[in-house]
């Protein structure tokens, strides 16, 4: 009895719901044609207002950019640009020499250790020799004293200053940023580094830079606290490459690119492998799919009424 009652109730509910849906549908149909003229006018006005506000915002934003005195970096044809091109490792090695001889006087690279150079730009014994050339504070020893020892492969590149305040004090208040990840931290990456290092010039007429600052159109604002660091023959390369300012800028940019993306070459190698594997698998799975579906795709469903 109870079962029959719920059965009836359910059937009634279903009926009510079905008719409800039908009702809703018929009342919800509305088109632009039968929309009230006033409503159309209001919507149109909102559209026009919104569009002109966006245009005005864009124009105002452009007008305060003062972009004539600032240069955007050019895109240079790096040899590692191609999707399958590795970094130029001879260039990384020269770039390390530039960093060590020039930039390391002011910039730290605290996330790069000497062991990272092994197999990239130096052999193990060469990297060891590089590490041993620096003195590292270690300790305490058995007498509780800190002591200096030659560097080891596991040591990180030394910081030229003991702290940020000392770094600022030595550079007219400007803090030389850590260069470990600089190519990822600036728009343009290695292009920016190259442009910045080679972009020093006299300020244009009417522009003066404060004492202790230098004009560089690639730096935001144009006045940078870093003096031009690279001049022709400011150092010598161990492989005999002529050390022109642009050569050094290019090499140090490649070195910094490697430092920020040490997985660069591996990444591109993996991409090559992945593309090869996936194209093989794609072909195979396409064939298997056609094979498995062939029965279903060629099936014909026919209705044959029984006589
Ligand atoms: C005499 C010290 C000194 C030397 C040498 C030096 N720099 Fe700098 N560098 C600075 C200072 C100071 C700043 C901060 C400038 C500022 O914020 O106005 C800076 C800033 C930078 C920046 C960041 C610019 C930015 O967009 O914020 C980069 C990149 C850079 N240096 C690269 C180098 C490279 C590469 C070398 C070696 C070829 C080098 N520097 C050599 C002092 C130096």
From TrEMBL:
Give the organism, scientific name.
Answer: Penaeus vannamei (Whiteleg shrimp)
Q: Which UniProt keywords apply?
A: Electron transport, Heme, Iron, Membrane, Metal-binding, Mitochondrion, Mitochondrion inner membrane, Respiratory chain, Transmembrane, Transmembrane helix, Transport
Record function comment:
Electron carrier protein. The oxidized form of the cytochrome c heme group can accept an electron from the heme group of the cytochrome c1 subunit of cytochrome reductase. Cytochrome c then transfers this electron to the cytochrome oxidase complex, the final protein carrier in the mitochondrial electron-transport chain.
Biological process, per Gene Ontology: mitochondrial electron transport, ubiquinol to cytochrome c
Q: Can you say where in the cell this protein is located?
A: Mitochondrion inner membrane
Which GO terms label this protein's molecular function in UniProt? electron transfer activity; heme binding; metal ion binding
Cofactor details (free text) = Binds 1 heme c group covalently per subunit.
Under what name is this protein listed? Answer: Cytochrome c1, heme protein, mitochondrial
Q: Which PROSITE patterns match?
A: CYTC
């Amino acid at each position: 009895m109870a079962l029959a009652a719920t059965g009836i109730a359910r059937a009634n509910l279903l009926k009510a719901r079905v008719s409800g849906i039908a009702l809703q549908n018929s009342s919800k149909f509305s088109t632009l044609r039968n929309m009230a003229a006033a409503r159309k006018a209001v919507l149109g006005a909102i559209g026009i207002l919104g569009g002109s506000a966006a245009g005005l915002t864009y124009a105002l934003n452009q007008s305060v950019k003062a972009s004539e005195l600032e240069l955007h970096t050019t895109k240079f044809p790096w040899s590692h640009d191609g999707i399958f091109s590795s970094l130029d490792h001879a260039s990384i090695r020269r770039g390390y020499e530039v960093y060590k001889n020039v930039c390391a006087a002011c910039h730290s690279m605290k996330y790069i250790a000497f062991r990272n150079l092994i197999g990239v730009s130096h052999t193990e014994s060469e990297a060891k020799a590089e590490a041993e050339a620096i003195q590292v504070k270690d300790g305490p020893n058995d007498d509780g004293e800190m002591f200096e020892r030659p560097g080891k492969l596991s040591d990180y590149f030394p910081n030229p200053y003991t702290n940020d305040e000392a770094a600022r004090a030595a550079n007219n208040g400007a803090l030389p940023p850590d260069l470990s990840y600089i190519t990822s931290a600036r728009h343009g990456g290695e292009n920016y580094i190259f442009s910045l290092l080679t972009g020093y010039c006299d300020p244009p007429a009417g522009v003066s830079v404060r004492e202790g600052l230098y004009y560089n159109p690639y730096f935001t604002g144009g006045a940078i606290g870093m003096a031009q660091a690279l001049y022709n023959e400011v150092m010598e390369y161990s492989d005999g490459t002529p050390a022109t300012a642009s050569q050094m800028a290019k090499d140090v940019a490649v070195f910094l690119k490697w430092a920020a993306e040490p997985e660069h070459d591996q990444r591109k190698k993996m991409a090559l492998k992945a593309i090869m594997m996936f194209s093989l698998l794609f072909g195979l799975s396409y064939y298997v799919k056609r094979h498995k579906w062939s029965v279903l795709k060629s099936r014909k469903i026919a209705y044959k009424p029984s006589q």
